[in-house]
Design brief:
8 strands; disordered C terminus; 47% helix; single chain; 12 helices; 8-stranded mixed beta sheet; alpha/beta; 3-OHacyl-CoA_DH
Amino acid sequence: MKYLSVIGSGTMGRGIAYTAALSGFHVTLHDVKDESLVQAKSYIADEMKKSASRGFIDPAIVDEALANITYTTFLEKAAEQADIVIEAVYENITLKMDIFKTLDKHCQSHTILASNTSTLSPTEIASQTNRPDKCIAMHFFNPVHKMKLIEIIRGLDTSDETVQLAKAVGARLGKETVEVNEFPGFVTSRMNCLIGNEAMNMLMEGVASAEDIDKAMKLGLNHPMGPLELADLVGLDTRLRNMEYLYQTLGEKYRPCPLLIKYVKAGRLGRKSGQGFYSYQTEPVLKK
């Protein structure tokens, strides 16, 4: 595989594009908004140069990696040469199905269509295509260039060949993979949403402060990041959409915490808005 396209240039999409370009893929990054692509291009260039200056990547490959990324607002252009397309738009099943339907029309017959969904059904998404055997979910984690895992989730009709090709792409990106049979929330989101939602309930009930809840999880249970810090990083709107889907599909224990709903209504979306369970400065720093 030589050509990899990413649909959506937000946090996850640009992270996947960054990692793929450094791994030698010819990458096309698509978004519907020119300004989003400008921001993504600036972010990717800055991150690569910063990583090179700190010795994390070889400075000699930066220019080549940056030259390997094409930016476009035309979905057809992103589809035409791709060996694999990774959709990384926000968690909305209708939007994802519409994108897969369009990709199916314009991609070559061998192209694999992957969704970076964290909770939604790859079977349902693939139902809009004439290639359900070549559709799969590849759940990346934020920040993509640092996190080592990709969940590989097969849909009802996903072929063994597609699973193996997705795993091979993951290995080329320097990631470990786990294979998951489709079920709402997969492995990580199902567990993570439950832990995070309980932390929010404890905060709402006055059990402890956000800082102490997170500190307890990090030092007592060896979590690298507290559940409230992580929710701020993911985005509280994203977390709420995930919780609503899991509540609909898995039942009462996934009912979204009222505090989460209140924060989203108030525009407190976490790091990206500057305010969530914590407050953030321009360079996101935890306020003590």
